[in-house]
Amino acid sequence: MAAVNGGTPPGCDAVCDVLVAGAGPAGCAAALALVRGGADVVLVAPAAPDRPRIGESLDPAAGPLLERLGVLGRIAHDGHAPCYGGRAAWGRDAPTEVSSVLGPYGPGLHLDRARFDTALLEAAEAAGALRRTGRIRAVERRPDHWRVATGTAGTTGTGGTFSARYVVDATGRPARLARRLGAAPGRSDRLTAVAGILAAPGGGPAGAERTSLVESTPWGWWYTAPLPDGGRVLMAVTDADLVAGTLLYDRDVWWARAQATGHVRQRITPWREPPGQLDVATAAPSCTRPAAGPGWAAVGDAAAATDPLAARGIVMALATGMEGARAILADHAGDGGALAAYARRITALHEEHLRARAVQYRREQRWDTPFWRRRHRTTG
Ligand SMILES: Cc1cc2nc3c(=O)[nH]c(=O)nc-3n(C[C@H](O)[C@H](O)[C@H](O)COP(=O)(O)OP(=O)(O)OC[C@H]3O[C@@H](n4cnc5c(N)ncnc54)[C@H](O)[C@@H]3O)c2cc1C
What is the SS3 assignment for 157-202? Predict the structure, then answer.
């Protein structure tokens, strides 16, 4: 890809072919694919994530994507733990087991999420993407390029004003760049997760089970999974308006409710008290329409975010990061329909997710409560 006009427009600190905003799995996958496709890429993201990283179960389907990105070897030997599948007490008391061991891709992983995201970012930088610390502050359409203001200019490694032929929104659920271009993400509901990390108990890893567990309750559901360091993620998922009534924002109530479960409590027996803090995160599926337009594409959660029940957000982020990059490269090569086709594909994927999700929620019929009534009404 040739650099914009071959020169730096007045008022800009640097020129690039593609500016990628956000350095989560989607932004890094897009940057890697774009650099390998011959583009000059600047990757802009804050030095540290805005909130604690939640999302540690890596679906086995990530394997082939990581391989195509050239990072599978590093991820496979980076201290993550195998995930042999999941158990779900959903629709009945006894848990159903889903094993990934015999699936086409073998076991998944329980990630050290910060290490995983760092490995992807380092791979993107090693491939040639230029990392700039900062946030997107403004984006303006000029006749043949975008002018993007990020962070504070002037200091090595921090933002600046860039001229880019294409921009990629990989800023996660808030879709900060797409919003500035007039394409806000639409949420399906108000699903919310109240999550905590139980630190590894003294005396080594707490048990050897390596599966995730979901357990439904009258007000929503619990999810728990072991972390590679012997700690554990535990989260309660309900609707935002039900959090107050269930007092799930209160650590002691949250903990007492976890102790009152049938199966989750067995996974948390080594812990005597709740985590020091709980993180409240939006977990509703959402879709940005359109997810791409002339000169831009949204990827990952910024394009379409999935219900964490599916535990497929990272796979989707990697896949759409690569797809979005491919659409930009195709557009640059003269395929004028590539970005619109990508946007349609995102909408189709999202609708498919909503249909599968509606089926999943209808499988739980034990409670006639607001959380479940809302989901039983939805057809997807
Ligand atoms: C409660 C919960 C549990 C989950 N559990 C799982 C799970 O077990 N398995 C799974 O696969 N998925 C899970 N997910 C989903 C998964 O975490 C996301 O789908 C995934 O992180 C999306 O990657 P992303 O790169 O699109 O966005 P993110 O990972 O959110 O990255 C966004 C990036 O954009 C940057 N950024 C933000 N604002 C700006 C700005 N203005 N300018 C520049 N950069 C900016 C951020 O710093 C960050 O680098 C879960 C989600 C939730 C809410």
Answer: CECEEEEEEEEEECCCCCCHHHHHCCCCEEECCCEEEEEEEECCCC
The pLDDT value recorded for residue 55 is 87
Q: Which of 54, 177, 315 to mutate to test the pocket of ligand 1 (most atoms within 8 A of CB)?
A: 54
Every domain of the chain with CATH number 3.30.9.100 lies at 83-108+190-282
Mutate to test the pocket of ligand 1, among 58, 314, 323, 353 (most ligand atoms within 8 A of CB): 314
Ligand 1 interacting residues, C-beta cut-off 6 A: 21-27, 44-46, 49-50, 54-57, 59, 135-136, 170-172, 176, 193, 195, 235, 281, 283, 300-302, 305, 308, 311-315, 317
Residue 335 CA to ligand 1 centre (angstroms): 30
184-235: pLDDT as tens digits: 889 989 999 999 999 998 755 555 678 999 999 999 999 999 999 999 999 9
Protein residue closest via CA to atom 14 of ligand 1? 55
CATH architecture of 83-108+190-282: 2-Layer Sandwich (3.30)
Question: Atom 17 (ligand 1): residue with closest C-alpha?
Answer: 55
* pLDDT score for 201: 82
Separation CA 170–CA 339 (nearest Å): 16
Residue located nearest, by CA, to atom 47 of ligand 1? 49
Torsion of CA 110, 191, 175, 56, to 10 degrees: 0
Instruction: Report the pLDDT averaged over residues 7-27.
Output: 90
pTM above 0.90, yes or no: yes
List, by residue range, all CATH 3.50.50.60 domains of the chain: 4-55+113-187+285-359
What is the structure's pLDDT at 48? 79
For ligand 1, the distance from its centroid to the CA atom of residue 173, given in whole angstroms, is: 7
Domain 4-55+113-187+285-359 has CATH 3.50.50.60: yes
